[in-house]
Amino acid sequence: MTEFNALDDSTAWQKEFEQRLRASYTAAGLGEAAVEHMLENACDGIGDWTVVELADEGTRIGHLAVVVADDRGTRAGRIGDLRVAAAHAGRGHEQAARDWAQRWCAERGARQVNVRLTEPAGELYDGYTVRGQARVRSVTSSPAPLGGLTARPMTRAEYPEWFAAERDAYISDIVRSGALSPEEAVRKSDRDFAKTLPEGLATPDNAFLVLEVAGERVGTGWLKHGHLPGVTYGYSLHVEERHRGKGYGRAAMAAGERVTFEAGDSALMFSVWGGNEVAMNLYTSAGYHVLEEHRSLDLPDAAAWRGATLGEQGHASPTERLSA
Of 15, 189, 215, 254, which residue has the fewest beta carbons closer than 10 angstroms? Predict the structure, then answer.
């Protein structure tokens, strides 16, 4: 039976947790400065997390970290860490810890629980909806053009039409992922574009591209250099629908990698909203590693947990073992 014991001092766990994150971000292709930036973001608010030692018949087997906070006016839980030592893996401890965390969050008013994955988790979170991924690829040289596709700077006359299409696509991606309602997605889009492009086409460190093949426009691109130290962020590389299925998706990514290299950055990063399997498959085939994956699960209210799941399996209720 999995045992759950709160830690009064989580210093040792935090050090080991940060080491794992650092190794994962480095393996994905980020440089040292970018890794430290990602680590700082991932550990934001870590002092508020409740850290639990997992044990089996008195033997420590891993750790679990959870927190509940307000998110856009509602209570949301987060599984910050769930780690079972390899020697004890595959015996049901991971599932017991996940279920315990869900109940702990629900008992504190959370209606959703979120998790940020930096390593494969097998089937543990199969019931969770993928909300989005961050993908990254190391760029150590300028790749040759693929499929005859080249990139040139966008003109001032081309910018308004591109901006309108980009905004609509961003809203659609958010809604399709299930992250926000259409109305919330519109508000988020307006806020994000106002913050990201305060000077429009003239916003510094942004590259606005028109992708062409033999002089014919086949798509557009938008890259932000220095998004993280040494990292260019690809807000979009879009191939027009009538030109899809011709291999231009990978060619557009190669063009983005060339622009990244020429700007002096050593990695190219993209985000993809959940539900966009086509883009995820393209990134995988092009050698882009999953830097982070965000998943979530809707929770019933606390009353629905009474006498169910963990309690029936003989595990103590979170409120019986831990205080808030």
Answer: 215
